[in-house]
Amino acid sequence: MSRRRDAIRRSAVATGKGDDGTTGLLFGGGRRIAKDDPRTEAYGTVDEAVAALGLARSELDPAGGGTDTRELADLILRLQRELFVVGAELAADPARPDRLEDGVTRVSEVMLDDLETTLAAMESRVTMPREFVVPGETRLSAALELARTIVRRAERRAVSLRREGLSAGEWLVPYLNRLADLLWVLARVAEQVESKIAPPSRA
């Protein structure tokens, strides 16, 4: 036991405080909740979405893929950072909404407006498929589809919190809803971009 505690004290990451199955809340003043609490499940799912988007971004080569590729990489990074805001709002103590800051620890109407503007712009660049899309056309589009499904799960978790009166912000659920729509469109954009930069097939 003492050797394990010594190792924790030497770690820059491990604290050991969560070994009892609890975790702290943002602005919670020391208040802790279970790691399988619906709130923890919600912001943990957002964390998964951030990681999935990281996987998608890693498939891009901004230096060698041209303007479209750089634009897509920048957009994915922006969405990852915005999901940190979503996660912060979900992880915050619902009793302290006064501590939340728009665009930093709470989803704002401006964030939603910007997302809708981006969605409209991206939709204008693709021809919508006329049949059900089976993910896997490219690695990048498949990663974006994975991120989309995780965002949908985060949305469902957030809806549950809102129904119980445990989510203060009014823009969080609409943001997640619109983000999932955008990721579906980005998967189609990715397929289009990759078809442009792929080497021609040999007969």
Which descriptors would you attach to this protein?
mainly alpha; disordered C terminus; globular; Hypothetical Protein Ta1238, Chain: A; 203 residues
| CATH fold annotation | Hypothetical Protein Ta1238, Chain: A
Per CATH, the class reads Mainly Alpha
CATH architecture: Up-down Bundle
Taking all residues together, what is the mean pLDDT? 82
Q: What general form does the structure show?
A: globular
- Poorly predicted residue ranges: 197-203
- Structural class assignment: mainly alpha
Kindly state the number of beta strands.
Answer: 2
- Return the string of H and E elements: HEEHHHHH
Which radius of gyration do the C-alpha atoms yield? 20 Å
- Main sheet specs: 2 strands, antiparallel
Widest sheet, order of strands: 1-2
- Tell me the domain tally: 1
Distance between the termini: 65 Å
Q: Can you describe what's shown?
A:
The chain is mostly helical and 203 residues long. Helices cover 60% and strands 3% of the residues. The chain has helices spanning 2-10, 38-58, 66-91, 109-123, 139-163, 172-197; strands spanning 22-24, 32-34. β1 and β2 form a beta hairpin. α2 (38-58) packs antiparallel against α5 (139-163), α4 (109-123) packs parallel to α6 and α5 packs antiparallel against α6. Residues 197-203 have low confidence and may be disordered.
Write the layout of secondary structure elements.
Blueprint: H1 2-10, E1 22-24, E2 32-34, H2 38-58, H3 66-91, H4 109-123, H5 139-163, H6 172-197
Helix pairs in contact: 2-3, 2-5, 3-6, 4-6, 5-6
